[in-house]
Every structure is written in C-alpha cells, then in structure tokens.
Write the structure tokens for this entry.
Amino acid sequence: MELQARCPSKVVSAEEAVSKIKRGSRVFIGTGCGEPQRLIRAMVEDYQLQDIMFYQMLSSTLAEYVDDPTFLRRFSLKLFFISKAMRKAAFEGKIDYIPAYLSQIPKLFSTHRVGLDVALVQVSPPDKFGYCSLGVSVDITRSAMENAKLVIAQVNPRMPRTWGDSFVHVDDFDFFVQHEEPLVETMTDVVDNQISMRIGHFVSQVIEDGATLQIGFGYLPNVILRYLDNKKDLGIHTQLITDGLLPLLEKGVITNKKKSLLPGRVVASLCMGSEKLYRYVDNNPMFYFRSSEFVNDPTVIARNDNLVSISSALEVDLTGQVCSDSMGHLFYSGIGDQVDFLRGSAMSKGGFSIIALPSTAQKETVSRIVPHLSEGSGVATTRADVNFVVTEYGIAELQGKSIYQRVMELAQIAHPKFRAQLIEAAKERHYIFADQLPPSQEDLLFLEAYKSTLRLRNGKTIDFRPLLPSDEFAYRNFFYSLQEKTIYYRFFYKMKLFSHEVVQKQWAVVDYRKNMSVIGLVQKAGHQEIVAIGTYAQESEERAEVAFVVREDFQGMGIASYLIEKLEVIAKENQYRQFSAAVLRENGAMLHVFKKHYPNAEIHSAEGSEVTVIMDFDDRRHSQASPRTVSEQGLSGQG
C-alpha cells in the first residue's frame, strides 16, 4: 500500500512531524534497535522544543547528545533500563532511572501512572491491507502507542516484518515520516575466555534436552549459548533475541518442538543485534513477537514446562540476595526481565533459574560472592527467588536450603583466594558453625573429570561426582536413610549418630588426591539425593583403603562395581598401586565383588570378625569380570 495514496495528509517530513510536539510534552521513544533515529535527530535539531521529557526502555541514539549541556537543558531522560551506551551518563547523574518489572511497564502507561503525550516509533511499510509491523520492537512500544495522544511513525523499509502481535493499522497513526536508514546494530561484547567457557560448561550440565530457555540481557548469558550446541530440541521464550541464538537456530539445536506453550515458535518481544539477525527474523513464522505484558508475565512464563531462566548479576551475597541493577549507589543496568522470569520459572513444571556471573571483578581483586551486598546496592532478586548460582568454579544450588547450606554452596564457587575470608565473615555473622572448615582453597576444576553417569538396569540414572563440603546435609540424610545392618557392615558397629563433628573429621582429610570420596545421586522431585558413596583413604604411599555404602533400594544394581572402577582410575592418577579393604567375614556380597574385580586378591584374617582384602591394580587388568553383572545384595564395606 502506498501511504501517499491512502493517507496523503499524514505523510510529512521529519521536521514537520516533530513540530507537532508541544513544549513540556512527555515523549516515548521505541526500544533499542527499533528506535526511530531520524525522528530523534529531528527533535534534537528543533530548538523550538523545550522542556521535553523522554521515556525509553533501551536508549542508543540519545547517548550521542547527553554530554551536551544545551541538550540537557532542553530534554530530560527517564529510562527503564540503562544500556551500556548510557552507563556513563547514569553514573554522572544525567539521566533518571525508573525501576520497574518489564511485565508491569505497559500497565504504567495504560493506567497513566506514566502519562504519555507522544509516541515516536519505527515501523515497516504497510502491506496491501494497511498493516505496518513494529518489527524488532514490540515490547513496551505497543502499549505506549495505544496510550499516547499523538503517534508519529518513521516508516523504514529496512525494518523487518515480524509475526505475532506486531501489526498496527495505518489508521492508528497520526503522522508518517518515510525515511530509509540502517537499523541500530547492537553487537554484544563477547569475551569468550577461560572464565566464560567454564561457566558455559557448568550451565550446560543442568540444562536438559527439550528445555525452554529464557536468555537475559548482557554478554554472559549470550556467551553461554555457544556451550549448548550439543543439546537437542531446545525452545525459546524470552524478552530479547540476540545474535547469540543464531548458531543454535542454524544448527537445529533450537527447534521449539518440545515447548508446551506455542510449540514451534520462538516467543519474544524484542530483537537487538546485527543486520544478519534482522534478515533472519524478517517474515520468519518461527518468531512470534508479543508485548512485554504477555512475554514477561510470570503466569504466562509458567505455562512453559521445563522453563530455564538464564540471567546474570553483579553481586550475590552469602544468603542468596542478588544485585543486578547497581554498583553500590551507581545505577548500572536495570531490573529488566530477571525477576519476571525467575518467578515464572519457579512456577513452571520442571523449571528453574540460573544466575551466572564471574567469581571476581576488577582483575580478580574483588569477589562477586560477598558477605553482604555493597552499600546502596539494590535487591531486586530476593533470597527466596534464587535457584542455581553458577561461576567458573561450579554450581551452587540454593532453593530450599538454609543459610548455613547457602554459605557453604556459595563459598565453594567463589574464587579460591576469597573462600577462607567468606567463611570467616559467615562465622562472625553466626551463619555457620564456629568450627566450620572452609572449602579447599585451590581450583578444583580437575574434579569435573571425575563426574559420570550410570544408567541402571531399571532405567534410572545415577550421577556420580566427588563429595563436597556443601553436601553435609545430604550426606547426613543419606546416613539416616540406611538400615541398621547396612551401617553395621560399613562401620563395624551400630553407629547411631552422624553429627556435624563426625562429618568435619571426614572432610578434614579429604584432599581429592590421596583421599577421595565419590557420591552417587538420583533425581527426586526437583532435587538430587545421595544413594551411594565410595571412598578411599591413604594407607601407605602405594596403597589406599577403600569402602562402599549403597542404600538398600539401590543394591544389586552394579553400583559398587561401577564405583570401584572409578575410584581405581582416580587412585592410579595419584600413584596408588593397590586397594585394601577391611570386611566383615559375614559380608559375603562385598567379598564377592572384590574377588570378581581382582581374582588374585589376597584375603588375610584379622582380629575378631574381620578380614583384610589386598587388591593389586595390575591384577585387575587380567580380569574378565564385568562390573555391570555383579550381584550386590547386602552391599557395604569398611574403609
């Protein structure tokens, strides 16, 4: 449709269009890469315009003018989110930040809590039916248009036509300015270094095939995406589409087939990136653009099963409070979509949230895991909202955990050089026991090689990994879940208590080299619980004493056989050549396991009811016994 033919009186120059704006007006500007650059510049160049108040979500073009005193005397800026281009101006107090959940901003317009006189937007040319598309900026733009008294559109042939709720009829605009120019391109600074690689590795461990993802603002969530390229049938329901999604779309990793809400569609309300990205979404029915009150509504988000929210933060304190919008008193970004998606993911069936951040800032001189948030820092994400926190040192699971457990989880993923002082600060605040040992002060990334998964004969899977200090409560629960007979076989007496002091003694000697404990975990109702543990402890330079405990309902499934293989591999790496085990004579099942793996094992009688089994690693090389077929009824042993 030709605008000149359909509504010639509405087609004007940029200068004439902005001349319709009165002094003192409250003017909304389209978001981010959808902002109408020609109209913005025309306003700045019209010195008749005075005392204008701009409202915008993400600002780019206006950043070119905020250092000009004459501009600031004529215009004031109110932003719902502080973009990187505006950060310096925010620190200098040249803009005004409005904290608000993205899902609630459209309501601020419709209730006139934030009154709008004018909306400046950018649209595609109309189709033959007279519908223009808001393209890459539907978000809060649609609501602003509907509630402004005067709507001026820059019509740009380069604006993509996007599917969904992006279409607006020409009759709903007051004036059109036809002007072709490149859209703003925003390329996220991708710092793909060792830190981001490790964070991506850990995040990928908790995301399963078929999950629906939300990707937050910032470079880190987008870097993480490249470490998900081995996943299958991922879906997307997110506020913002960036170039980070393109490789996964092109490789077929993102198919949206498993989504429970709008399957087959990428649901979003905003697109910011490169020209390549804009051409990809142009008239692509896979992309379904809706306004922020839909996309960011937690109840809508929750309709996506297995919704995983991935966002970043500036600081996380030891109790789980998250700051993402300010550096102390300095406003840095905004609340944005984080809280909406954290709460939506919490209500999603099988859903959860991930806060990802590097463990340090300022060249490793400052910890981002802190005893308390910096003075002036905002708490948009509360302790109760957080599920997983991920740094380059691992994964902390906080949901349902006490303050003590949170401290141990978070200290464990802090930078090693800050762990001891974090523990001391927690003791001063009486968050943890006074005798609590700090996590190891070395980089334990090598423990990743000791993680594995075993599929059992009944179809269930068990994840194996080294035991960590944060596992104290899970370890305790495991002990008290065991039957008296199993405990007797393991400890040689009817042990009644498994106290904090007992656990501390065990961890005091665990160094993950000469002494090692590996636990087996199964998924239960959204969390994991321990069902098995295998341990070796140094007996001499070449020999380690080994022991196993498997919960009764998982005995006879090949778990001890699997653990002895894994422990031997680790023991060999640490220059051991033999295992020894003290076993009760009556524990025939455990003796059978050892003889199956080490046919030439030496069995020596000891005092009382015990025997000592000596197993040489060279002997097992000649064994044809399959650890997956060993019967383990009554499994347990002493080490």
Q: What stands out?
A: Residues 559-573 form the longest helix (15 residues). The first strand starts at residue 26 and ends at 29. The radius of gyration is 30 Å. The chain has a mean pLDDT of 90.
